[in-house]
Task: structure prediction
Amino acid sequence: MKERVLEEFKKIFGGEGDIRAYFAPGRVNLIGEHTDYNGGHVFPCALTIGTYGVARKREDNKLRFYSMNFEEVGIIESSLDDLKPYKEADWTNYPKGVMWAFGEKGMKVEKGMDILLCGNIPNGSGLSSSASVEVLTGTILRDMFGFDVSNQDLALIGQFSENKFNGVNCGIMDQFAIAMGKKDNAIFLDTATLKFEYAPIKLQNAKIVISCSNKKRGLGDSKYNERRSECEDALAKIQQYVGINSLGDLTEEQFEQCKDAIKDETKEKRARHAVYENQRTIKAVEALKNNDIEKFGKLMIASHESLRDDYEVTGIELDTLVEEALKINGVIGSRMTGAGFGGCTVSIVKDEAVDEFIEKVGKAYKEKIGYAADFYVVEVGDGPSRL
Result:
């Protein structure tokens, strides 16, 4: 892949100068959904698929972007003097946002750049192609301009740019999982404190299979921000009676004792999901440490049911993928992953059942939904790097 992107860069932008290649992974969250902005725990891992980038500094202020995934768009031009989000700037608002964010943190990008990207994450799948582009851009800027930032800083800068530049009120999980990825490990992260530990993913005789619904969704214009404000309202009501900082501070029992304070059925459901999902995530990591993969799978299924019934972010596409998955012998667990409203499910499937899973779930999905899903058997990979 490195050779392919370098070749393409030279074709599009010319071959002279100091040309460097980079990679940042995508991520999948195994459990702990919509907990990251509620002060809870998440359990994501980086993948071996992601975004490749090639970059070269320029002598002027011009920015030229090209994506091999959107060849029909051609080169999108911009300038360091005009780092603002424009609708017609399309996907380049993500790398531009990171350049802007570096400047806001006192690290001004002084020279323009030519940048080519190529992702092998399915677009709009919920495997964090945007966060992957953000961390990749941060990695490029750190290397090219010698900025003194850690991988954890890259995650925080990526989140800051997505919140403040692109207007998506996302939590820290996606950027953190990508920037801090470690091969064969998932990251057990407390999003309230950023304390984390690596937990080895030992799936004896099983694989992680991602099923992409191919229903496109845009985070900014989906109900993501609405869910977030519903949880904030519920928290404010509970805080009148209990001294907590976030919904993630509550156990299930404590929530049941103070939920009547919310006085709104919908918001109570949203808060219930945030509290119970956080506790499920803590239990799931414990199960994994005890090599109890069956329990881990049951918690994944309970997570999906809560996202469907209490948080209402699944939809017919994701529900169909999970329902059909659970009919297959050899499926240990299955749930939607990512923000929802389309995107992907993640399933843990015994080796001998993977082919049957892809065939049967694919067939049932196409019959019910009217178009095909895509399936990816993935491996857990490292964080960003210069290639």
Summary: The mean pLDDT is 94. Residues 208 and 348 are 5 Å apart (CA to CA). The chain has eleven helices and 13 strands. The two ends are 10 Å apart (CA to CA).
